[in-house]
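User: I've been trying to design a sequence by hand for this structure and keep getting stuck. Would you show me what you'd pick, starting by listing the structure so we're on the same page?

Assistant: Good idea, let's start from the same input. This is the structure you sent:
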């Protein structure tokens, strides 16, 4: 594919999504729920030391499960595909591999499968961080460019 065929796609688009900062009320509520859960777990264990360890473990587990909410994720779109650096790990997909892009105004899922389902875990979950009007058309045009090139 030539540079003339996709001039805007030669540019790299990068952004950071950090839901904790974007949604402060949700951040406070989520943190309160995590602390309350840790406290309740610690009360459920009769041994004081065991209770403290169990409560702390429960809070740590919930923090890791919600790591993409608490810590920033960095996205990068270029002419080859999309890459993301999550707080724990990285993931990238080439435009040729993508099959679907269900989305709304706040985020979407770039999938390598024709149909979605509970086991569709090979894709990338994308948060737009308020830049959906810029990012959605870029993703759609990149996917369409590949489809036209393959046809």
């Amino acid at each position: 594919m030539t540079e003339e065929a996709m001039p805007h796609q030669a540019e790299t688009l990068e952004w950071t999504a950090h839901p904790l900062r974007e949604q402060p009320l949700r951040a406070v509520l989520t943190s309160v729920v995590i602390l309350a859960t840790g406290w309740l777990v610690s009360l459920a264990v009769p041994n004081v030391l065991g209770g403290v360890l169990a409560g702390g473990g429960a809070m740590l587990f919930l923090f890791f499960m919600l790591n993409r909410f608490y810590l920033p994720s960095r996205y990068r779109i270029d002419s080859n595909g999309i890459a993301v650096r999550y707080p724990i790990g990285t993931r990238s997909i080439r435009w040729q591999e993508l099959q679907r892009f269900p989305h709304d105004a706040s985020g979407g899922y770039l999938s390598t499968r024709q149909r979605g389902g509970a086991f569709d875990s090979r894709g990338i979950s994308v948060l737009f961080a308020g830049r959906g009007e810029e990012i959605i058309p870029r993703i759609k045009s990149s996917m369409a460019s590949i489809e036209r090139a393959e046809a």
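That's my pick for every position. To get oriented when you compare it with your attempt: The chain has five helices and six strands. Residues 1-9 have pLDDT under 50 and may be disordered.
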